[in-house]
Amino acid sequence: MVEELLNRAGININHATENGYSALIGAAEKGYSEIVKLLLKMRDIKINHINESGYSALMRAADKGHSEIVKLMLDNTDIDTNLTDYFGNSALTLAVSRGCNETVKLLLNRMDIDINYLKRGDSALMLAVRSGRKDMVKSLLNRTEIDINCVNRNGSTALIVATEHKHIEIVKLLLDCATVDINKANLKGETALMVAIIGGHTEFIELFVKRKDIDSNVKDLIGKTAFFMAINKSDYNTAKLLIIAKILNLAIKTKRIMSPVNLMNKISWFRLPYY
To answer: Domains of the chain: which residue ranges?
Structure first.
């Protein structure tokens, strides 16, 4: 029936409802791949038309996980892969948020996709990390232009977010990237190491202190270092790790809090290892 209608003279294939829904957007949203094929064959089809919410047909297909339709649309040279709706979503961020791994892979095959686009402060990488989607994180990290150190509205990097959400395998993936900045701090001045100490995530702490580029002398906004945080939490195992790794200068002093040595002197049973 659709094919018959499309063959009629004078048919307006781009007619849209009051809400801006065209036949193409409707078919893409519902997963009607055969109808999408027919519509895409029409010379005058407006493939990038958006509805009143800013959704295009590609975005609706990505959001619903219709990977076959996404592939059909990406084969069209006129497709705009970086359109965003009025909520800040792109086809890529929608696919990542919905956990549509196949759709994400298809989109990443397009070299014109803006992989570092920020949806209200979150990149596709950040969204994948927060949700613990390891396979998606791998796919995103395979793109050479990925900004692994971009930050969200809290100033947190993907590494900090992965640490906060206790995604150890994703942290390992991020640490394997040559460009990762392990010492980058969020708006509170907290690094990934500090976040791990605050959360009591021992496995993460052990990963971080083994890094040659770790700087545990970084201070947060109130002047605390990772060592101070460990001692304040009575986490003496972490404190010892920091000392043994020789990544902390024990002579550090701050204006707002006592030095590490003075603080440890209040703990009678704690003994510093000799160098």
So the answer is: 1-108, 182-275
b/e 96-127 (16+ beta carbons within 10 angstroms → b): bbeebbebbbbbbeeeebebebbbeebbbbbb
Q: Domain 182-275 is of which CATH architecture? A: Alpha Horseshoe (1.25)
Q: Between the CA of residue 86 and those of 82, 90, 117, 169, what are the distances in Å?
A: 13, 10, 15, 34
Question: 84: which strand partners?
Answer: 90
Here the tokens at position 132 are 């613990």
pLDDT digit string, tens, across residues 149-171: 999 999 999 999 999 999 999 99
Contact between residue 29 and residue 60 where contact means Cβ atoms under 8 Å apart? yes
Say whether 182-275 and 1-108 share the same fold.
Answer: yes
Measured CA to CA, the distance from residue 250 to residue 73 in angstroms comes to: 60
User: Which DSSP string corresponds to 169-188?
Assistant: HHHHHHHTSTT--TT---TT
CB 238 within 8 A of CB 194: no
Residue ranges of the alpha helices (H) in 7-123?
23-30, 33-40, 57-64, 67-74, 91-98, 101-108
CB 25 within 8 A of CB 66: no
pLDDT of residue 265: 54
* CATH architecture of the domain covering 1-108: Alpha Horseshoe (1.25)
The tokens for 117 are 């686009």
Give the global pTM.
Answer: 0.83
